[in-house]
Amino acid sequence: MNNVLYSIIGILVPFAGTSFGSSFVLFMKNNMSQKFQKIMVGFAAGVMIAASVWSLILPSVEMAENQGVISWIPATVGLILGVMFLILINKLADKIQSKKNGKKLNMLLFSVTLHNIPEGMAVGVGFAAALTGNSGIEMFEAMLLAIGIAIQNIPEGAIISMPLKIEGNSKKKSFLIGVLSGIVEPIASVLTILLINIVVPVLPYLLAFAAGAMIYVVIEELIPEIHEGEKSILGVVGFLVGFIVMMVLDIALG
Question: 0.70 cut: is pTM over it?
Fold first, then answer.
């Protein structure tokens, strides 16, 4: 198998992870209790915060250091821009969408999809480097990166499709939307390979930008929902489980 074919397969691997995670919705019960919903919202928040730190901010810092840039600058600038961008998106959503739950789900879907773009670009950088043959990165290392991101994408696919089902969408529609949230990764990977010289310098900023967007959604949309209705620690438990799962995946597969 030649390196080009390996690269094509590798680029599609993270998308497969998101699709697999989205398929969890197909096994959900039709009627979900409020307790389960609190757990799911907490789990989604935990996954997103852990992903923001280990999948986005720390790689942004490390990549900036490797580029000879002051390490905290891209992360700081990216985070601020990401939060500001989501504030603007949220204001637009308030004008367009009056239904609160629908807006929240749209924000969740948007932020996770946005987060998939720099991850796809990181995969593209790995395979572009391997294809050059003189970068010190072997094809199997690029493939391991793609597999690692694919495994991390499994819970992210689930936190898109399952809340959609809870809000009344069909299992099939929820699954398809979850799958589509991951399609941006292979697209971003291919564009990165084609535009490698342009993309690499700004990738640390894009990683932190996506982290800022996700953090905003957690603080503005998910955490308030955890505290709605009857007081319960289930949302906190869900957050802790989601955070630990994503943290362990990121560190183990780092």
Answer: yes
